[in-house]
């Protein structure tokens, strides 16, 4: 293509009086590239938003470092109806699982230190005996995050942990597959739903920060996402009709009801 500088000048002719002489700007390409480059420059690197935290493994007493996200780092972009949050500069979900590389014990950071003696023995017997170890890079990718969540899930299973621990880990795995645009999202949503339904009956609230009605809403939403609309309605109707439930949660429940009404399969 013939790019004549004088053609570009014409676009801004008439602005000389205002102080803009011979403006040499390519209307789209060059300017955008520069803006983009500048935005990239000012964007902090993922590594600079992380720091090392020292942890002692409750199973094998090994002292090791975990990668942790600085509190001020994540900027929320949007929140999905099942509470998955999109962040713009770092994905904190990637760093939620802690792994002891010496014995293979892994759990969500909220649970990592809460391990009972019989569970330690179960880790040694079922995980450590097979564990080969892996050195992870300084920053994690989506695939690494999936691997880490799965190792945590396996640890929860072999240590007979609460259904809620398995359910929340499956929920987070479903979110990771959502980021990957993979159908496996639905597999893990449905496993998560099963676990939360059990936890709702057997465990005391709060469950991972969720009170009873938030958990009911989530169970309804997970049902909706896997196509069980009538069961979803049963759960959220209780949220909508129970007095004292927060306005915000009722609003979410009403939004969900509208989505179900609009569903062409209904
Ligand atoms: Zn360990």
Give a structural overview.
With about 270 residues, this protein is mainly α. The chain is built from 9 helices and 6 strands, in the order ααββββββααααααα. The strands form 3 sheets. The chain has a two-stranded antiparallel sheet. Strand 5 and strand 6 (about 105-110) form a beta hairpin. Helix 8 (about 230-240) runs antiparallel to helix 9 (about 245-260). The longest helix is centred in the C-terminal third of the chain and has 19 residues, at about 185-200. The termini are far apart. The structure holds zinc ion. Zinc ion binds near residues 57, 59, 100, 102 and 103. Zinc ion binds near residues 59, 60, 62, 103 and 105.
Q: What is the N-to-C order of secondary-structure elements (H for helix, E for strand)?
A: HHEEEEEEHHHHHHH
> Helical proportion?
40-55%
Average pLDDT confidence is: 91
Rg over alpha carbons: 25 Å
Instruction: Please count the beta strands (DSSP E, at least 2 residues each).
Output: 6
Strand order of the largest sheet: 1-2
């Amino acid at each position: 293509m013939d790019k004549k500088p004088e053609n570009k000048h014409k676009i801004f002719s008439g602005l000389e009086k205002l102080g803009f002489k011979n403006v040499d700007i390519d209307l789209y390409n060059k300017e955008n590239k520069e803006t983009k480059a500048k935005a990239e420059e000012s964007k902090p690197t993922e590594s600079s938003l992380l720091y090392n935290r020292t942890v002692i493994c409750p199973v094998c007493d090994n002292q090791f470092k975990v990668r942790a996200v600085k509190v001020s780092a994540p900027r929320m972009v949007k929140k999905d109806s099942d509470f998955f949050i999109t962040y713009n500069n770092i994905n904190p979900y990637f760093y939620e699982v802690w792994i002891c590389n010496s014995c293979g014990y892994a759990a969500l950071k909220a649970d990592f230190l809460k391990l009972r003696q019989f569970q330690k023995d179960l880790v040694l017997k079922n995980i450590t005996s097979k564990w080969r170890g892996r050195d992870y890079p300084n920053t994690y990718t989506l695939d690494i995050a999936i691997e880490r969540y799965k190792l945590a899930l396996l640890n929860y299973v072999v240590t007979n942990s609460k259904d809620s621990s398995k359910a929340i880990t499956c929920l987070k795995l479903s979110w990771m597959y959502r980021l990957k645009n993979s159908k496996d999202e639905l597999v893990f949503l449905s496993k998560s739903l099963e676990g939360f339904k059990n936890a709702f009956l057997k465990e005391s609230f709060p469950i991972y920060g969720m009170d009873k009605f938030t958990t009911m809403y989530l169970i309804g939403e997970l049902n909706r996402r896997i196509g069980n609309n009538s069961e979803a309605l049963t759960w959220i109707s209780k949220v909508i009709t129970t007095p004292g439930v927060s306005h915000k949660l009722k609003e979410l429940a009403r939004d969900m009801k509208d989505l179900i009404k609009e569903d062409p399969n209904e």
